[in-house]
Amino acid sequence: MPNPLYDALFAPLATRDTAFLTLPDSSTISGAAFLRLCQQVAGALVAAGLEPGDRLAVQVEKSPSALALYGGAVIAGVVFLPLNTAYTPDEVAYFLGDAGAKLAICDSRKAEALTPIAARCGSTLMTLDADGTGSFADAMTAATPRATPANRTGRDLAALLYTSGTTGRSKGAMLSQDNLLSNAVVLRDLWRFTERDVLLHALPIFHTHGLFVATNTLLLAGGSMIFLPRPDTDALIRWLPHATSLMGVPTFYTRLLDDPRFTRDLVAHMRLFISGSAPLLAETHEAFEARTGHRILERYGMTETSMNTSNPYDGERRAGTVGFPLPGVELKITDPETGETLPQGQIGVIEVRGPNVFMGYWQMPEKTAAELRENGFFITGDLGQIDADGYLTIVGRQKDLIIAGGYNIYPKEIELELDEAPGVRESAVIGVPHPDLGEGVLGVIVPEPGASPDTGAILAALGQRLARFKIPRALEIVDELPRNTMGKVQKNALRDRFKDRFKP
Ligand code: MCA
Ligand code: AMP
Hints:
Elements: H1 4-10, E1 19-22, E2 28-30, H2 31-47, E3 55-59, H3 64-76, E4 79-82, H4 89-99, E5 103-106, H5 108-121, E6 124-127, H6 135-142, E7 157-163, E8 171-176, H7 177-190, E9 198-201, H8 208-221, E10 224-227, H9 233-239, E11 245-248, H10 250-257, E12 272-275, H11 282-292, E13 297-302, E14 306-310, E15 324-325, E16 330-334, E17 348-353, H12 365-371, E18 378-386, E19 392-397, E20 402-404, E21 407-409, H13 411-419, E22 424-434, E23 438-447, H14 455-465, E24 474-477, H15 491-497
Parallel strand pairs: 1-10, 3-4, 3-5, 5-6, 9-10, 9-11, 11-12, 12-13, 23-24
Antiparallel strand pairs: 1-2, 7-8, 13-14, 14-15, 16-17, 17-18, 18-19, 20-21, 22-23
Helix pairs in contact: 1-7, 2-3, 2-6, 4-5, 7-8, 10-11
Bound molecules: methylmalonyl-coenzyme A (MCA) and adenosine monophosphate (AMP).
The site of adenosine monophosphate has 18 residues, from strand 13, strand 18 and strand 19.
């Protein structure tokens, strides 16, 4: 039965007895063994009563079994919904409820907190730990492996990935099999991935970057991955000599450059370094080339669209730009007010259309209509400019968004919490330059008259509710927030005032 994503990415593993994954202890998992793991997952999903189109929510540490959950979901035709391991139970509750997840799989140490939440959302809860144990692992052993993939078309949903929203509520981006597969085909060809490639994989696997850009592309190319649980610089340096390529967020590259062991000799054999998810500073690009002789290839994408643009493989990889639209992707710069296409060279909103563009937000027709035009163009909310040679530069964001270490953080979500804190009249959350993460989250609060808010207690309370990466690295107390004549908080003025807050 057809299942395009399975047929292209997973079926070829059946005859592969060479390594697909190399683990930190140097052990390997062959392609065929990984496929068997995926088939066991699929068997357990079917045994748990999941049918094609049902949602599987997953919040587990990175491991081969965790990756096999994705493969098993594809085989079973189940919609894969990966969640950041940093999310608190409160945050997970929203995703389970909104997606109507039939099954949720979490690490055993989170099971106690998630049990009542899953029950409330009508989801069955099972566990899977990074060492491959847990109630779902037991179910995998007990079930009959499912080798025949569920019948799916390219238009069927493969994944539901949540992105935060400027108004606080996260939106589930519906990604079809075709969305994922078309992007993998383009990236394999453009970046020249082949079966000889060994990708050093140190990204999390709950986002597009580590899950689809990295894994799908390598699966399609027939390559292998050194699969590290964390982006630890020591481990990167230990494993780089065994890799041909690395995909990372800019923090990977700045951390490597800070380490004297990261030398030209260490990476002389490497074929490709790719960066994305957050802006790579031109100075990092240049320092990297000076140190290693390699020019990092920067690309640009989003959860809703997977990858949109890339610097060229052969031509000039231009620092500070994200290159050209990918083959099959149309890109235009429009006027934010009128939606009209702007002349080349002008700054406007980046809009994209192509087989990579998602099918809309899960059960949010209004939000879908506001961002995905009827003619198929998706309004990214990023501001860009195309130079005379066709290179796109991202010059800013229309959306109020902070990107720290490649994670998106929506200030509104944190402001809503801060505004409720004792002694706080109002707040503004901004991103300011951070030497390690690119941007660091800074909270600015105005106290109630006569109050002296306890910033330590406020941050501790926030930590109970929001993932740690969203928690401001510091809180500043001010008498009032700068506002324009319309009464809108001028975040630019705040960003300027506190721009050196995280300077070393
Ligand atoms: C960890 N912390 C962070 C972040 N990561 N704080 C802000 N932003 C972050 N990104 C906090 C932890 O909560 C902890 O706080 C402290 O920093 C140290 O955490 P640790 O786990 O040691 O950090 P790390 O393992 O060194 O990770 C930093 C990292 C990581 C390498 C930047 O966040 C990372 O791998 N980022 C990649 C994210 C990614 O894949 N993004 C793609 C999404 P405390 O000390 O208080 O406990 S975007 C996407 O998919 C689109 C489509 C695209 O274009 O790619
Ligand atoms: P996400 O919602 O996590 O998929 O994040 C997508 C956002 O990350 C985009 O809308 C951009 O703002 C940003 N982004 C991704 N790649 C780059 C890049 N190379 N340079 C600048 N911003 C990027």
